[in-house]
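> call design_seq(struct)
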């Protein structure tokens, strides 16, 4: 009896005991999937079969397509079960595996993405790479039904050719990784200007954002531009930020009914989104909106940030602390079905008068307002979007303006209640350390800028959850929590992003334990991820499962790279602690990536924000006073309302002065003058005289916040 007939006797494959929602989605495929592990590779060696490695994630649209088309298909399953050992990996659980094989795919094909398909030897050496593969061949692309038998034949008859290609691939990819280390160059001050020029050259003058289509939020471009504007006074940098934030807020990429931002816009106009919602997009968006609000005092940014946080609190928060990963694009098998409306539905729910206002503002049409991707036919459905900001709608309609906004809000609530009754897209409820770190940072930034204690409490609850459940006493962390199970050793991004969250949390609560924990994680990260020889941080720990090579990444893609965020963390911790060894580490890390970054600065905007801090120096503000004293709070609020991205704030509260003096020895002799809250401001390694006159303190802080 062959493998595929045996399969008819049982409903599940070997993924049935996994925790990952993505792997569980595939646990009833007729393909005999294995999770990544010794069992699969041992079996491949025993049976002398190549590995079919498929990497994806639970809210990936084309992963669903490939599953339905191929992995649920008996003919494809038979070919896979007959001639291959099939291994399924959730890239969000195992970014180390994904990172290595994505580099392979990019080297072979010139592009990458998910689903990622790799064919390799039982020794994990890849000889073929692709992303989505159709079931049947089309447009000259071989389909699964043609490709699998061809590879199987080569494996049996011309194996040496496949093995030679595997060796060549590994050499090329790891050589590329090593090359970066040899090209150590000095970082120069022209790089931020070049980055601005490159971003300006790809800025879409007509619809805002960068490039044409698809358009991704990539908001670390905007946080870099805010810093560049602040340093250079170049008004175009600020204009690019404001126009892009406004375009996203008004477009269909924003969920106007339940809030939150979708993954990306498939068109230039920000109208038709890819409807999945990722936790990291929400977090990065809130961080950016908060900084834009501090820089401009534009209330729309504050409102939008608060709406996105409301979405995270309502739909993406685990009751014990921590945040879920993503919501799918599809529901009932159709992408976007949950989010779109017909004009008739809206009229029926809202009644004629309210519907008339809502339909006009949100561009709803009887025939529908968008065509499906790659087709010209209107669908009869509508994606809600506006052509004016709410601020302008209110101003331009005079006395009637406030009435319109009240009407829209009433209508939104009614539509939200109705939409809630629909079948929801599936939720990926695993909790990832790195994305949670970003989200903690986002809640903290908003808590600071909007003086909101509830956001602070949410961030504390999440951080405490990770500190209690996901961290060993020596600072070793885990990557994923789901269903009570803590698993997978943490990766560089986990340490970098979570440390970022802790630094922000200290700057919000001034509870020293968060600073102590950030330093503990940083010590562990330096000990186990740092490349002592060449500089920079590896993606995996020196204790991790050995891959074909250890990768080091600095590209700031959908989210910033672990190295870029680490540089920023080290700089801030160096300023807080006065530890110059951390700055030396920063210098080495900056220089190892200099050549790579120089060739494509716009692809490294988080790195450029870190470089901005390294080149231009920081501002240390030490406040000596009781944490809950009204004067202390007033000073903190005054600082937090302003955009001073290079600042670090330390609070020396009498209750924790010993602990803070231990971390930051230079604060030991700083005391309250005349029993009043006293502020010490240091800039570019020089300190001003301490002040306890609140008006003078405000004057100096105001001066810091001006460009």
């Amino acid at each position: 009896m062959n493998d595929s007939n045996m399969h008819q006797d049982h409903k599940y494959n070997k993924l049935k005991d996994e925790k990952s929602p993505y792997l569980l989605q595939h646990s009833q495929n007729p393909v005999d999937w294995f999770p990544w592990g010794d069992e699969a590779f041992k079996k491949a060696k025993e049976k002398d079969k190549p590995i079919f490695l498929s990497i994806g994630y639970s809210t990936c649209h084309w992963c669903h397509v490939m599953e339905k088309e191929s992995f649920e298909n008996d003919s494809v399953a038979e070919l896979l079960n007959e001639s291959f050992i099939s291994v399924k990996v959730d890239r969000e659980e195992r970014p180390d595996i994904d990172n290595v094989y994505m580099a392979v795919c990019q080297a072979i094909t010139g592009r990458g993405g998910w689903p990622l398909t790799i064919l390799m030897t039982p020794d994990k050496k890849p000889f073929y790479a692709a992303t989505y593969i159709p079931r049947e061949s089309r447009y000259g692309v071989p389909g699964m039904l043609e490709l699998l038998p061809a590879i199987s034949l080569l494996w049996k008859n011309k194996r040496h050719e496949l093995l030679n290609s595997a060796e060549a691939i590994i050499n090329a990819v790891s050589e590329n990784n090593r090359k970066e280390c040899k090209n150590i160059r000095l970082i120069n001050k022209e790089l931020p200007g070049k980055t601005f020029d490159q971003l300006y050259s790809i800025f879409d003058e007509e619809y805002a954002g960068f490039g044409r289509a698809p358009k991704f939020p990539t908001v670390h471009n905007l946080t870099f531009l805010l810093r560049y504007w602040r340093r250079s006074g170049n008004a175009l940098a600020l204009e690019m930020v404001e126009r892009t934030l406004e375009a996203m807020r008004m477009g269909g990429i924003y969920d106007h009914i339940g809030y939150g931002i979708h993954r990306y816009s498939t068109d230039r106009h920000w109208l038709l989104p890819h409807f999945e919602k990722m936790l990291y997009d929400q977090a990065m968006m809130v961080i950016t909106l908060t900084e834009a609000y501090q820089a401009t005092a534009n209330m729309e940014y504050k409102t939008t940030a608060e709406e996105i946080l409301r979405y995270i609190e309502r739909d993406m928060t685990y009751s014990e602390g921590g945040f879920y990963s993503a919501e799918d694009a599809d529901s009932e098998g159709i992408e976007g079905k949950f989010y779109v409306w017909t004009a008739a539905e809206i009229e029926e729910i809202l009644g004629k008068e309210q519907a008339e206002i809502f339909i006009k503002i949100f561009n709803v049409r009887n025939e529908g307002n968008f065509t499906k991707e790659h087709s010209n036919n209107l669908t009869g459905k509508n994606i809600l979007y506006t052509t004016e900001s709410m601020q302008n709608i209110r101003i331009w309609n005079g006395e009637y303006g406030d009435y319109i906004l009240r009407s829209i809000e009433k209508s939104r609530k009614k539509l939200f209640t109705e939409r809630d009754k629909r079948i929801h897209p599936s939720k990926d409820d695993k909790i990832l350390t790195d994305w949670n770190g970003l989200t903690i940072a986002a809640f903290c930034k908003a808590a600071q800028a909007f003086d909101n204690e509830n956001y602070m409490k949410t961030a504390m609850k999440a951080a405490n959850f990770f500190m209690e459940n996901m961290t060993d006493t020596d600072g070793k962390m885990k990557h994923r929590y789901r269903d009570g199970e803590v698993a997978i050793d943490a990766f560089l991004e986990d340490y970098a992003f979570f440390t970022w969250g802790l630094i922000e949390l200290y700057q919000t609560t001034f509870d020293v334990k968060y600073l102590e924990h950030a330093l503990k994680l940083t010590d562990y990260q330096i000990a186990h991820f740092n490349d002592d020889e060449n500089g920079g941080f590896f993606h995996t720990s020196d204790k991790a499962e050995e891959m074909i090579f250890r990768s080091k990444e600095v590209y700031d893609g959908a989210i910033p790279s672990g190295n870029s965020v680490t540089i920023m963390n080290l700089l801030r911790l160096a300023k807080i602690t006065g530890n110059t060894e951390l700055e030396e580490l920063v210098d080495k890390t900056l220089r190892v990536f200099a050549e790579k970054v120089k060739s494509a600065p716009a692809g490294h905007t988080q790195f450029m924000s870190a470089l901005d801090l390294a080149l231009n120096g920081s501002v240390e503000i030490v406040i000596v006073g009781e944490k809950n004293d009204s004067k202390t709070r007033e000073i903190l609020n005054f600082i937090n309302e302003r955009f001073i991205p290079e600042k670090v704030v330390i609070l020396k509260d009498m209750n924790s002065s010993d602990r803070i003096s231990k971390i930051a020895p230079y604060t030991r002799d700083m005391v309250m003058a005349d029993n009043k809250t006293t502020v010490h401001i240091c800039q570019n390694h020089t300190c001003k005289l301490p002040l306890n006159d609140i008006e003078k303190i405000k004057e100096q802080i105001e001066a810091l916040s001006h460009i």
